[in-house]
Design brief:
Blueprint: H1 2-22, H2 25-46, H3 52-73, H4 81-104, H5 115-138, H6 142-167, E1 171-173, E2 177-181, H7 182-202, H8 212-240, H9 256-275
Antiparallel strand pairs: 1-2
């Protein structure tokens, strides 16, 4: 299983790197939407929709959300930060509400276990993720920022996995994902903060106005959001009685199993860039 996971990850990394470095911002935003649509197809099953027609309607609804935001904000997402900031702020707040749901599971599951609410949750998770990634891509050196975002999420995931495997004893969220441990969480933080230190050391002088404390805080928030995204999708899968969201990616499960952490992190990362004055 680990070998399959590594091989699949290498292929995904290669495709991602080529896409981010070769495609324009418009084309990459479209590519993000296409990947999000694949995740929406998987989420539709987690939401409880069984017929192909209903699941297709959910995917079309997700695509409509993307088109609506693209129409409202025009071809250049980064044109006016004052329009973007409230959307990202609301997205981050909504993720904090999801943290409450994860922490209280299964006590409050009665509030969101209906197909309608689970569908709305999926549209938010995937829609906010697409919106945030598209915004970051339109910024100066956006392709590099998106790579940094994915590397941060990957570092949190890999470090948490191996530290948890070696020393994990105390469950982090036993009712949601019994395999995740507090020790693994700290391992993820250590990996991401180490990456933040390297980023600060390599940061060009043009960005000296970004204080090192801000860099470490962004890293810490992104690590936390990565775990929250993972746990949120795990919570919905557990409520739906599914182990994985799909079978498309050998060793990883479905597309949604790889998007969850990225979708959780993207709004916090994008908003952080605004708050530190990069955007």
């Amino acid at each position: 299983m680990l070998a399959k996971r590594i091989y699949t990850a290498l292929i995904l990394i290669s495709v991602f790197f080529v896409a981010v470095t070769q495609l324009s911002a418009n084309m990459l935003s479209l590519a993000f939407a296409a990947v999000g649509a694949a995740g929406a197809w998987e989420w539709s099953a987690l939401a409880g929709w069984t017929s192909r027609v209903a699941r297709a309607v959910f995917v079309i609804t997700f695509a409509g959300v993307c088109v609506a935001f693209a129409w409202v904000y025009g071809p250049n997402f980064a044109a006016d930060v004052t329009l973007i900031r409230p959307i990202l702020g609301l997205a981050c707040f909504a993720w904090l509400v999801h943290a409450l749901l994860v922490d209280s599971y299964p006590k409050l599951s009665v509030l969101w276990r209906s197909r309608l609410v689970r569908s709305l949750m999926g549209l938010f998770v995937l829609g906010a993720g697409w919106f945030s990634l598209s915004y970051v891509m339109y910024l100066s050196n956006g392709w590099l920022l998106v790579i940094m975002l994915v590397i941060t999420v990957g570092a949190a995931d890999v470090c948490a996995y191996f530290v948890g495997k070696a020393w994990g004893k105390n469950p982090l969220a036993p009712d949601v994902s019994p395999a995740k441990t507090i020790e693994g969480l700290w391992g993820g933080f250590l990996g991401v903060l180490s990456l933040a230190g390297l980023t600060w050391w390599l940061l060009p002088s043009a960005y000296a106005y970004i204080h090192p404390v801000e860099i470490f805080l962004i890293a810490a928030f992104c690590c936390s959001a990565s775990v929250l995204g993972d746990l949120t999708v795990s919570m919905v899968k557990r409520e739906s009685g599914c182990k994985d969201s799909g079978v498309l990616l050998p060793g990883h499960g479905g597309v949604l199993d790889r998007l969850d952490s990225i979708c959780g992190t993207a709004p916090f990362f994008a908003l952080s860039l605004i708050l530190v004055g990069y955007a």
